Amino acid sequence: MTQTIGYAALQQDAPLTAFSFERRELRATDVQIEILYCGVCHSDIHQARNEWGGSTFPIVPGHEIIGKVTKIGDAVTGFKIGDSVGVGCMVDSCRTCPDCHDHQEQFCNQASFTYNSPEKQTGVNNYGGYSKQIVVNHDFVLHISDKLDLAKTAPLLCAGITTYSPLKHWNIGKGDKVGIVGLGGLGHMGIKFAHAFGAHVVLFTTTPAKAEDAKRLGADEVVISSNTEEMQAHQGSFNFILNTVAAPHNLDDYTLLLKRDGILCLVGVPDQPHPSPSVGPLIFKRRSIVGSLIGGIKETQEMLDFCAEHDISSDIEIIPMQKINEAYTRVLKSDVKYRFVIDLSSLEAV
Ligand code: NAP
Ligand code: ZN
Ligand code: ZN
C-alpha cells in the first residue's frame, strides 16, 4: 500500500477537506499514476452531496484524471514509466458480458466506477482523482498524445466522451441541425464536437451573457431558452438535441423543436425527475427521448485521438485543490468557463 493525500467529502453536505488514505499495492496488470490534473464534473457535486442517493462516505471525487505513469506491474503492456495517461469514469468491469464484449463497459452491470463504487476484487470503496496518486488496471488507462495540453485534456475524460459518444452513436454530421442545451462542462464540449462533425449547431442557454462564447466555441446560433418566440421559431427543425442540464425542466419545450424522427438525448442527471413529457409531441412526429452514459474505453481513446488530430480541448479555469469548495459554489451558479481543473501540484505529497 502507498499512502497518498486527496480531498474528500467526509459526509453528506460537508465541505471537502484534506484526507489521507492508502492506494492498493500494485497488481501485475496495474499502472501507478501521479495525478497532475483533475477536472471538476457536476457529477462530483451530485455525489459528494448525495443528491442521487446511495453515496458511500468518505468520497474522494474526480473522474477526469490526467497524470504520468510512475510504476507498472509485471504484466502491464502498452505503458511505460513517464507516459502521459488519462483515467475517466471507470476503472474496471467484468470483461465477459455482452456489453463488455461490445466495448460498452459503461453499461456492464459489474462496472467499477472511479469513485463512490466498490473495487471489483476487494469490494473496497474506490477513491477518485482529487488526489496525488492512483492505481488503475491497465485496460482502463488511456493514452494521451504529446500534441494535447495536459490540463485542457482532463475534462475530455468525462465531459468529452459523454458528448462525443451520443453524437457518434446517432451519426451526427454534415446536413444535421443539432441543439446543445446548457453551456457548462458538457455543453461546451458538445458544441465543439457537433461543430467538428460538420453539423449546424444551436446552443440553448439560460444565460444570455454566454452567447458570445458559444459562437466562439462553434455554435452557429444561440437561443435564450426562456424566450418563447425564439424557441417557437425553431419548431420542428432539429435532427438531434443533446440536453446537458443538471436541473429538472419541461422536456416538451425541446421535443417540439425536433423534426419527424428527431431525437432528444438526455445526458444531464438532475437530482429530481423532469416533469413527465407530453405524449402528443412524441407520437405525431415519431420523436424519441433517449439517454446516454459516458462511453466505452475504446471509444474514449478514439475521442482523445480525434481531439489530438483536430486540436480540440476544453476551455478551463485552473484552480488549486484548496479552492474546490468555491468552485462547487460557482458551478452551481452556472458560473464556470467552462470547466474547473484542479492542479494537483497545489497539494503536498505525503
Ligand atoms: P455544468 O457545468 O454545471 O453545466 C450545466 C449547465 O446547465 C449550466 O452551465 C447551465 O447552462 C445549465 N443549467 C443549469 N441549471 C439550469 C436550470 N435550472 N435550467 C436550465 N439550465 C440550467 O454541469 P456538467 O458538468 O456539464 O454536467 C451536466 C449534467 O450532466 C450533470 O447532471 C451531470 O451529473 C451530468 N453528467 C452526465 C453524464 C452521463 O454520462 N450521462 C456524464 C457527466 C455528467 P446555461 O447557463 O447555458 O443555461
Ligand atoms: Zn463526469
Ligand atoms: Zn461486463
Structural class comes to alpha/beta
Q: Let me know the number of strands.
A: 17
Radius of gyration (CA) equals 20 Å
Task: Just give the CATH class of the largest domain.
Answer: Alpha Beta
Our measurement of the CA-to-CA distance between the termini, rounded to an integer number of angstroms, reads 13 Å
**Number of separate helices:** 11
Mean pLDDT: 97
Brief overview:
This protein is an alpha/beta fold. It is 23% helix and 26% strand.
Account of the protein in words:
Helix content is 23%, strand content 26%. The strands form 4 sheets. Strands 3, 4, 5, 8, 9, 16 and 17 form a 7-stranded mixed β-sheet that branches. Strands 12-11-10-13-14-15 form a 6-stranded parallel β-sheet, with helices on one face. It is built from 11 helices and 17 strands. With 350 residues, it is α/β, with parallel strands linked by helices. Strand 1 and strand 2 (17-23) form a beta hairpin. The chain has 2 domains: 2-157 and 316-349, Medium-chain alcohol dehydrogenases, catalytic domain (Quinone Oxidoreductase, Chain A, domain 1, Alpha-Beta Complex), CATH 3.90.180; 160-291, NAD(P)-binding Rossmann-like Domain (Rossmann fold, 3-Layer(aba) Sandwich).
